[in-house]
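Appendix B, record 7
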Amino acid sequence: MAERATKEKYSSGNWHRKKLKQMEPDAPKPKLPVVDQVSSGGVTLRKRDAGVEVALISVGKPARWQLPKGIVDPGETPEITALREVEEEAGIKTELLQKLDTIEYWYVGNKGQQRVRFHKFVHFFLLAYISGDIGRHDWEVNEARWVEMKEAEQLLAFKSEKQMVAKASAIIAALNKA
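Structure tokens (predicted):
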């Protein structure tokens, strides 16, 4: 009897329909837990004879150019995080000039052993270079370099970070007219 039931299961064609149903793209996917994540970073400016430069970092494999930023530690303000992260990732000391904006996006990643959806908020600040050597960047960074503002907008991997550099550029232009 058991042999007949097994034979019917595989010969009736119903077993594969259930499998296909599970693979359909419209089938509801299990909901991932949502985790809020807050980071902070900066558009650091340095005035040179040729114009204004911004500090960029290259991270990852394949390498991508981005602004220095990182997670806001417990008890830390976004402003302090921006100063700390720029110093760690780009090797330079800076001073805070003003807030540029906060960007928001979603991505899926791991938190420990669990797959989660991160709801990310990144505070960006306009910073002025004080001192330091950009070559003394953190181990997480492939390379750090000073780049002219227009070139930075071309090199940056993320649209939102290109927008932060454009905002910084507009602020500088407005100051130069004043």
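Remarks on this record: The beta strands are 34-48, 51-59, 64-66, 69-71, 92-111, 114-132, 143-148. The chain has a mean pLDDT of 88.
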